[in-house]
User: What shape does this take?
Amino acid sequence: MERAQVPETTIQRLPVYLRCLLQAQQERMPVINSVQMAEMCGSNAAQVRKDLSYLGELGTRGIGYDVEALIAHISRVLGITERRRAVVVGYGRLGGALRSYTGFPERGFEIVAVFDADPAKIGTDADGLVVRPMEELEDGIREVGAEIAILATPAPVSQQVADRLVSAGIRAILNLAPVRLHVPAGVAVRQVCLSTDLQILSFHLAQEQLT
Amino acid sequence: MERAQVPETTIQRLPVYLRCLLQAQQERMPVINSVQMAEMCGSNAAQVRKDLSYLGELGTRGIGYDVEALIAHISRVLGITERRRAVVVGYGRLGGALRSYTGFPERGFEIVAVFDADPAKIGTDADGLVVRPMEELEDGIREVGAEIAILATPAPVSQQVADRLVSAGIRAILNLAPVRLHVPAGVAVRQVCLSTDLQILSFHLAQEQLT
DNA sequence: ACATGTGAAGCTATTCACAGCC
DNA sequence: GGCTGTGAATAGCTTCACATGT
Assistant: This one.
């Protein structure tokens, strides 16, 4: 293992840096420095430098960071130099929105299959893909070579679907249902819960209101 | 200021505790202890106790925590004893999914208005609400007394819409567009970016793959 | 006996400040 | 002179371990 260990907090900021670098690239900036990056992504210069230094010595003293090179490097660290294949499981309103979200392809991801349990949806069009039945989940995942699953099923069934995803070889799950998933070690899960975010916002409103 | 200062990390876990307590309530558990809570929400007992202790002395030594009382207390801290009113801005596929998401009402939130810029959508039904034009944004927000905005507009216009939300008195924004919003102090923003989450998952896949 | 609440210890992350290099 | 990379200092979070109360 060459790369010592990039802290998890740093990893979580890499996508932000990448976004800001892509913007700089569009603005035809050949080089960017830590102060500019910090401004663009709402951080501070020392943090940016420290984070990037975990990935290697990527900058040039007195100059800054080469935008192209840094984009390439962060993309490599994030493992998105090739587009990664993902499946959407649960084609309700949220699953539908995710399937047709245009931001994924340009950020390194491709939706390659869609599954749902509802017989009325099976076989219908999902923005260019066909909605497949849950019975085909394991085979379908192997067929298309998907590595990531976006889980947009109803909360009560999410755990059992997750178990099947894992047994089909999925190692990364983005869970949109408000339940904690139990998965074996080696499987990465990220939880997105909009109600949770709203409740945190509500806390801040409540704080202000007790003036 | 009576309540010393609840750490931000603790606040972020309160919604998780609340979810787990509601589950305990449904299972007719009158009392729960820190070990059980930790198991249910994937934390550890010391963390649970420390977090809850920031809110006051809510447990009984030798017994544990009264489920009902703790639900009430956390709800109060999160400011969701009354349902908070939110507007959805941007009624595309994502905005549509959010508007009809049934999880909000039971977690303390109510969508009270929907706005969009597209003339073809204005006036149409949004699951029981009427899609209103962006021209009515400020007046509409004041009219319905909304405190929170869920921002699901295209990335390029999100900042200018956010500015208008703030000038209309909104103090909490849930931003679903992949751009950093600049807002004045006193306005809380939470950023949800699914591409970011996928990229973090991709990093973990990449780590494993370099075996 | 049992489980909370909490100082203290240990650990991780952020910020500072400057040496090192262009 | 300017900007990176980084050890040192600081701040913040988590875990431990036990005194405290039921």
Q: What stands out?
A: The two ends of chain B are 53 Å apart (CA to CA).
